[in-house]
Amino acid sequence: MTDIDWVMRGVSFTIEPNQTAAIVGHTGAGKTTITSLMMRFYDVQHGQVLIDGVDVRDQDLRALRQRFGVVLQDPFLFSGTVADNIRLGTEHIDDEAVRTAAEQVNVDDFIRSLPSAYDEPLRERGAGLSTGQKQLINFARALAHRPGILILDEATSSVDTDTEFRVREALGRMVEGRTSVVIAHRLSTVQRADVILVMHRGQLREMGSHQELLALRGIYWKLYQLQYKDQELSEPASGLTPSLAMGTD
To answer: What is the CATH number of the domain that holds 208?
Structure first.
C-alpha cells in the first residue's frame, strides 16, 4: 500500500485520554490502516497523526511503538514457557507482573491448572490450546507491558464459545484507565465504546455513541440491522492515558 492519501481522505477525529474508541466498517473500509498510521507502519502524505499533541513523525520510532499494546485476530504464541510468552523478552517484567496481568484477564486459573503452571512449555503457535486460551495469554502479554494506548484489532472475532465470556470480561478490564482503539466487525463488542467511528471506502462517514449512531439511521444503523435482524431494535435515547488526534486531507 504505497499511496495512503488515495486510500484515506478527510479522516479527522480526536480520542481523549482514557477513552475507548471503536472503529467499524466493512472489510477494506480503512479500519486497520488507521492504526497502522498511528504506529507509523505508514506515514500520512497529507495531514497529521498526533499523540499528546506531537506529530508521530517527530517522535522516536522505537519509543512511539513502545507506547502501544496490540492484540490481533490470530493469537501468536512461540515455543517457550507460558511466562516467556507473556514477558516477550522484556526483562523488567518480573514474575509478579506476569501473574498480575494473567489475573486481570481471567487466565491465571487456567495457567495454574497446567502441570508446570507458568513454567509450562508451550509448543509453537500454542498447539493444544483453544483459540480463547491463546488469546487470553495474548491479552495478558499486552497488559504486562503496561501500554498507554491499547489496540485490539478483531481480537475477539475468532474466539471459541467456551471462552467467549471470559474474553469479553477481560476486554472490559483491559480498556480501563487507558486510551483504547477497538476494531471489530461484531457490533456487540463495541456498543459500550465512548465513541464509534464508522469507516466506509476510506472515509470517516459517521461518529458518535452507539445510540447516537442508531438515531442517524445511516451506515451504522444498517450494519446493526444486518447483525441483529432477528432482534427488535430498541428506541435510541434522545437527546491515550495519552490523547490521540488524526487528520488527513
So the answer is: 3.40.50.300
pTM score of the predicted model: 0.81
Q: Among candidates 171, 133, 174, 175, which has minimal Cα distance to 21?
A: 175
Residue 50's SS3 state is strand
Which long-range contacts (C-beta less than 8 Å, at least 24 apart) are formed by 28-33?
A: 28/201, 29/199, 29/200, 29/201, 29/202, 30/199, 30/201, 30/202, 30/203, 31/153, 31/183, 31/199, 32/153, 32/183, 33/1, 33/4, 33/7, 33/8, 33/202
Give yes or no: residues 173 and 245 share one domain: yes
Give me the number of domains the chain comprises.
2
100 and 20 share a domain?
Answer: no
Residue 145 carries which side chain, given as an amino acid letter? H
C-alpha cell at 95: 514474575
Sign of CA pseudo-dihedral 140, 210, 199, 17: negative
Q: How far apart are CA 2 and CA 233, in angstroms?
A: 41
Full domain range(s) for residue 195: 1-67+148-249
Which residue matches cell numbers 467456551? 162
Looking at 146, 174, 204, the residue that finishes a domain is 146
- For 45-100, how does the pLDDT look when each residue is reduced to its tens digit (9 = 90+)? 888 888 888 999 999 999 999 999 988 878 888 889 999 999 988 888 999 999 99
